[in-house]
Design brief:
- The structure is a homodimer of 282-residue chains.
- In chain A, 39% of the residues lie in helices and 20% in strands.
- With 282 residues, chain A is of the alpha+beta class.
- The first copy, chain A, has three domains: 75 residues, Winged helix-like DNA-binding domain superfamily/Winged helix DNA-binding domain (Arc Repressor Mutant, subunit A, Orthogonal Bundle); 100 residues, Periplasmic binding protein-like II (D-Maltodextrin-Binding Protein, domain 2, 3-Layer(aba) Sandwich); 84 residues, Periplasmic binding protein-like II (D-Maltodextrin-Binding Protein, domain 2), CATH 3.40.190.
- At the A-B interface, helix 1 and helix 4 of A face helix 1 and helix 4 of B.
- The structure holds a DNA duplex (30 and 30 nucleotides).
Chain lengths: 282, 282
DNA sequence: GAGATCGATACCCGTGCGGTATCGCTGCCC
DNA sequence: GGGCAGCGATACCGCACGGGTATCGATCTC
């Protein structure tokens, strides 16, 4: 199976529309139809159920979509990391560390300072991204190492080391009645009728159904909370960066959040190893 | 980057010889040379240092070899799993479980029995393989789930659940003086001059340098121990399948061995999930 | 210095990918 | 209900690119 075929199939599977997929791929529709047919013939498996009006994934197509995305990420990672390795020969290789925008900057800055003091330290570029994007960046080679937050982020497929664990707080508008409490329980805050939990986009960019406003990043979220339109559970360390119009109350029975440093299992370069080692010593 | 290019490069990188690599790939040498040159041009990176007599990997080439293998495995896995999913529609999908030949069969048979009793159980094919091969089978889709033994097997890149932990014993020929002891220390057995530890092949099929006989599987190993030519450290559960001409003595300070069930992180099918759940309940 | 070995180059051929034009089917709407 | 619009499939064409053979240039060996 060639990566071209995989790219074509993934495009069609995501669009569920040959014309749009072809436009996205920058080719015409007929060669795309042919390529998919040929892929199906070679696999001996129907991937799509097409009527002349609609396209739908079969069970096998669903599997190939999932596995194919992972495979394409791996190929892309091989490409990117090779290019980086080649540049490394003629200059500073550097590392790219990715973490969630809005996550605790205290741990990160401590880590960067400590690592910079190491004798064989290389430059570390920090990349901030929205929730759920880090895993992708790590898998396709755009980043070398990530700070993830369990249980929110999935660490599946990566090597990890635990760095620290913290409890969580509920973030509320400054004047809210609950802000007088010294602590609350999950049950007190999960179903506040006027302050629903926001909805984050899934890995496919779509929002799950349900109540609560849609948010894309932490700035939006904090704004919504300040406006009295939402509330949120967040790691305790977020208190350091709370605005004046927000308040935080510890949630005793909320799950603990563990910050881990994660890296792709196959590419343990010396630079990554050094950074990880520094991190575990913090 | 196309998988064809990756396959070509990996072949050359492994053979370090264009002629042999071309023969292995079933093509002539000139197109192979051209393909590699083109790959290097597109990546903007030298992958191989060639003189007219020898070929060697550059730093970037080493990276591409490592990453490229992983990517090719992922592509192959996508292929295989899609084919399997298509067959599943017209019959029993089934699971393939891989474990080391010679590993404890007690845990495995308990697991298989317990899982078979589940209402939605599918057939499980058991695949036995040599040490170090399981990870490969799991990564390239020939197996769905594996029983691995930490710290011997690397679980990097997989999701795992711990099943059980056991101590280790040293396996010796039946008449050996140490067999009278009730227990020994690592120091007592690591450097027995007449009974060296055997050497296992690495992932590349090559044997590391050093003393000790080369072995490929457990039968060979046991045979060598019985002949008084080797000794070995092994999990306690191996005692159940020891031959009469062998004896085992507990090694108090040997590292504990943990048996884990492992599966590829992206392909958590319902069948795999069921098997894992059954395993954790044992 | 002759020969062997190995990678690179030159050149040719055929497959296969991509393009345009068009068909056949289906749902929609006046 | 018939015309129309939208979609995927098919037919056909041209060319780029992958693969083959022949050969060269360099280097190691005896």
């Amino acid at each position: 199976m060639e990566t071209r075929e995989l790219r074509y199939f993934v495009a069609v599977a995501e669009e569920l529309h040959f014309g749009r997929a072809a436009r996205r791929l920058g080719i015409a529709q007929p060669p795309l139809s042919r390529a998919i047919r040929q892929l199906e013939r070679r696999l001996g498996a129907a991937l799509l159920e097409r009527t002349s009006r609609t396209v739908n994934l079969t069970e096998a197509g669903l599997v190939l979509l999932r596995e194919g995305r992972a495979a394409l990420d791996a190929v892309e990672a091989a490409d990117r990391r090779t290019r980086r390795a080649a540049l490394a020969a003629t200059g500073d290789p550097g590392l790219v560390l990715v973490t969630k925008a809005g996550a605790s900057s205290e741990l990160l800055s401590k880590l960067l300072d400590a690592y910079a003091a190491e004798p064989e330290a290389v430059t570390v570029d920090v990349l901030l991204c929205g929730p759920g994007e880090q895993e992708r960046l790590l898998r396709d080679g755009r980043a070398d190492v990530a700070l993830l937050h369990r249980p929110f982020d999935t660490t599946a497929g990566f090597d990890t080391e635990e760095l620290c664990t913290e409890s969580q707080v509920v973030v509320l508008p400054a004047g809210h009645p609950l802000t007088g409490r010294t602590h609350v329980q999950m049950a007190d805050v999960t179903d506040l009728p006027d302050l629903p939990m926001p909805r984050w986009p899934g890995p496919d960019g779509m929002y799950p159904d349900g109540p609560g406003p849609q948010v894309r990043d932490h700035t939006q979220l904090l704004q919504l909370i300040a406006l009295g339109r939402a509330s949120a559970i967040a790691p305790e360390s977020c208190r350091a960066q709370l605005r004046d119009d927000l308040a935080a109350v510890p949630v005793l029975d909320a799950p603990m959040v563990t910050t881990v440093i994660a890296w792709p299992p196959h590419s343990r370069s010396r630079a990554v190893a050094g950074l990880v080692q520094t991190a575990t010593r913090l």
